[in-house]
Specification:
Elements (H helix, E strand, L loop, with lengths): L1 E5 L4 H13 L2 E5 L17 E4 L7 H9 L4 E4 L9 H6 L3 E3 L6 H16 L2 H8 L18 E5 L3 H12 L3 E5 L5 H7 L2 E2 L2 H7 L2 E4 L13 H4 L6 E5 L8 H10 L2 E6 L21 H6 L5 E3 L8 H20 L10
Parallel strand pairs: 1-2, 1-3, 3-4, 4-5, 6-7, 6-9, 7-8, 9-10, 10-11, 11-12
Helix pairs in contact: 1-12, 4-6
C-alpha cells in the first residue's frame, strides 16, 4: 500500500483528494500544519509528501525528506516558487505539480474581483445591512469600451482576456512568449509592458513568479500606468511591490486594486486570525483603503478545479508507486 503525507490540508482538500487517492489504492495521512524545517522531522513511513503553495521546501526540508526515504514531492498546485528544485534534484527527489486545472476558476475569480471593485459591491453590501440605502460614493464605470491589459497569456490569461472581451473591452497583451495565432483569432494585440500599463484601464496579472517577474509591478512601472488604473492580481503576490503599490494608491495614480494573493501571505492566508492582532503592517495598511478588495487566495476554489487537482495528484501518486512514468507535463 502506498502512503503519502498531505500537509497544510483543509476540509476541502480531504473531501476531494481523499476519495480520489483511495480509488487508486493510495493511503493519505492528512496534516493541518505546513511542511517546513520545523515539521519535516514528523515525516516518516511514507512514500511521498503532498504540499501546497505555503509549504516551504527549502534545502533543510529536502534533506529531511531524503533522510526519511521520501521519493516523490507532489505539489497540488501549479506554482513552485516555494520549492528549492536544485536541492530536490540533487537529493534524487522527484517533483511533480498540477500545471493546469480549470483555468476558468481563476479567470472567473479575477473578473469577479474586478466587478466587485468597480461597482463597489462590498461597500454597498455593508451599507444595506446597516439600513443605509444611499448611492453616494458607489459610482463605477462601464467596462464596455474600456481597455484591459493582460500580463501573461497562458491558459488563465487567455480565458480572462476572452471573458473581458465579451464585455466589449479592447484587449492588450504582453508575454515573453506570445501566442500570436490565438491573439489574431480574437483580434487582440501584443505590446510591451510599458505600453500596456500606459493604455489600460484594467491590468490583470497572470504570469508565474520567476526571478524575471519578481515585482514586475514596481515603483517605476506604477509611474507609467494610466492614471486611475485598476490592478488585479490572482497569480502570485510577489509580482507586485506592495509598498510601491500603497504609495501609488495614496497618490491616486492607481484607482483601485483587487488581490487574491499577497507577497507575504504565508502564515496569514488560509488561516483564521479573527481572534488575533494582525502583525503585518503592510497588509493592515492595504485593508484600510476603500478601493482595495482582497480575498485570501481562493481563486482556485471551485468544485471543478479541486477535482482536477485531486485526479492529477492522486494519479501521479499511483504511477510513482507502480514504477510508471508520471503524467506528461507534471514533472519539474
Amino acid at each position: 500500500m502506498t502512503t503519502f503525507a498531505v500537509f497544510d490540508s483543509k476540509p476541502y482538500d480531504r473531501a476531494s483528494l481523499g476519495p480520489a487517492a483511495e480509488s487508486k489504492g493510495v493511503t493519505l495521512k492528512f496534516y493541518e500544519f505546513r511542511l517546513e524545517p520545523e515539521t519535516v522531522a514528523l515525516v516518516h513511513d511514507v512514500d511521498g509528501v503532498c504540499v501546497f503553495v505555503n509549504d516551504r521546501i527549502d534545502a533543510r526540508v529536502v534533506a529531511g525528506l531524503r533522510e526519511a526515504g521520501v521519493g516523490l514531492l507532489a505539489l497540488r498546485c501549479a506554482g513552485f516558487n516555494n520549492v528549492d528544485l536544485d536541492a530536490c534534484h540533487e537529493a534524487g527527489l522527484t517533483v511533480c505539480r498540477v500545471p493546469a486545472y480549470s483555468p476558468y476558476a481563476v479567470a472567473e475569480h479575477a473578473v469577479a474581483l474586478l466587478m466587485a471593485l468597480n461597482r463597489k459591491v462590498a461597500k454597498a453590501h455593508n451599507r444595506v445591512h446597516e439600513l443605509n440605502f444611499s448611492l453616494n460614493g458607489l459610482v463605477g464605470f462601464d467596462l464596455n469600451g474600456r481597455t484591459a491589459g493582460i500580463v501573461g497569456t497562458g491558459r488563465i490569461g487567455q480565458v480572462t482576456a476572452e471573458i473581458l472581451s465579451g464585455f466589449g473591452m479592447t484587449i492588450l497583451l504582453t508575454d515573453p512568449y506570445p501566442n500570436q495565432e490565438w491573439a489574431d483569432e480574437h483580434g487582440f494585440r501584443y505590446v510591451d509592458l510599458d505600453e500596456l500599463a500606459a493604455n489600460s484601464d484594467v491590468m490583470s496579472l497572470h504570469t508565474p513568479l520567476t526571478p524575471e517577474t519578481l515585482h514586475i509591478v514596481d515603483g517605476d512601472l506604477l509611474k507609467k500606468v494610466k492614471r486611475g488604473i485598476y490592478i488585479i492580481n490572482v497569480s502570485r503576490g510577489a509580482l507586485v511591490d506592495t509598498k510601491a503599490l500603497i504609495k501609488a494608491l495614496k497618490k491616486g495614480r492607481v484607482g483601485g486594486v483587487a488581490l487574491d494573493v499577497y507577497e507575504e501571505e504565508e502564515g496569514v492566508f488560509f488561516e483564521d486570525h479573527s481572534d488575533h492582532i494582525l502583525h503585518d503592517d503592510t497588509l493592515a495598511r492595504l485593508l484600510t483603503f476603500h478601493n482595495v478588495v482582497i480575498t485570501a487566495h481562493q481563486a482556485f476554489l471551485t468544485e471543478e478545479a479541486l477535482t482536477d487537482i485531486a485526479d492529477v495528484t492522486s494519479e501521479n501518486m499511483r504511477r510513482f508507486a507502480a514504477g510508471e512514468e508520471l503524467l506528461d507535463g507534471t514533472v519539474l
